[in-house]
């Protein structure tokens, strides 16, 4: 998938506000760019209604993004974020539905994601049919040194 510097700027504008630094979940610009260069990674941007933003939408007005990696009938949601000022407006619901539809159009029969236990987005994922299928105890480490479990979720065939 081709991407432009403007879209990378839009992703990073959301990234810089959406992730709590305590958890170390945000990616660097280089990490996002490298993932998108691979060719099997995909992204979606969301405007304030969760639909794609206008092409000339400034980075500060992009509400959210999804970044995923596809292969072998599966697609993994690597990053999913909504900027704090756009939360509780349905942006995440609309963006997650768009991600699922796009992944299925690319041939994904099963969707995957991994998140830290206690992530407030869990209820969103469950509403969209994701179910826990695995646990990695003490997988994540916060800045303060606390260890947190990672929970793997799946949606689709064979869950």
Can you describe what's shown?
This protein is an alpha+beta fold and 159 residues long. The chain has a domain at 5-112: Gcn5-related N-acetyltransferase (GNAT) (Aminopeptidase, 3-Layer(aba) Sandwich). The chain is built from four helices and six strands; from the N terminus they run ααβββαβαββ. The protein has helices at residues 5-18, 29-37, 91-105, 122-127; strands at 41-46, 64-71, 74-82, 110-116, 131-141, 147-156. Strands 1-2-3-4-6-5 form a six-stranded mixed β-sheet, with helices on both faces. A hairpin with a 2-residue loop joins β2 and β3 (74-82). The protein is globular, with a radius of gyration of 15 Å. The mean pLDDT is 94.
Biggest β-sheet strands, sense, barrel: 6 strands, mixed
Mean pLDDT: 94
Q: Which residue ranges are poorly predicted, with pLDDT under 50 across at least 5 consecutive positions?
A: none
Q: Oligomeric state of the chains?
A: single chain
Write the CATH homologous superfamily of one domain: Gcn5-related N-acetyltransferase (GNAT)
Strand line-up in the sheet with most strands: 1-2-3-4-6-5
CATH C-level of one domain = Alpha Beta
Beta strand count = 6
CATH-derived architecture of one domain: 3-Layer(aba) Sandwich
Tell me roughly what share of residues is in helical segments.
Answer: 25-40%
Shape: globular
Helices and strands, in N-to-C order? HHEEEHEHEE
- Provide a count of the helices: 4
Rg on CA atoms, Å: 15 Å
Query: Per DSSP, what share of the residues sits in E-state strands of 2 or more residues?
Result: 25-35%
Secondary structural class: alpha+beta
* CATH topology heading of one domain: Aminopeptidase
């Amino acid at each position: 998938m081709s991407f432009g510097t403007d879209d990378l700027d839009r992703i990073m504008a959301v990234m810089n506000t959406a992730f709590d630094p305590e958890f170390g979940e945000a990616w660097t610009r280089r990490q996002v760019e490298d993932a998108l260069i691979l060719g099997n990674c995909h992204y979606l941007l969301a405007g304030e209604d969760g639909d794609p933003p206008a092409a000339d939408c400034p980075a500060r007005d992009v509400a959210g993004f999804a970044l995923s990696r596809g292969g072998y009938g599966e697609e993994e949601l690597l990053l999913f974020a909504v900027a704090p000022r756009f939360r509780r407006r349905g942006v995440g619901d609309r963006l997650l539905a768009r991600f699922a539809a796009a992944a299925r159009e690319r041939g994904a029969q099963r969707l995957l994601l991994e998140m830290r236990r206690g992530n407030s987005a869990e209820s969103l994922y469950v509403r969209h049919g994701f179910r826990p299928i695995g646990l990695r105890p003490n997988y994540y480490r916060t800045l303060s040194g606390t260890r947190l479990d990672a929970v793997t979720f799946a949606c689709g065939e064979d869950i």
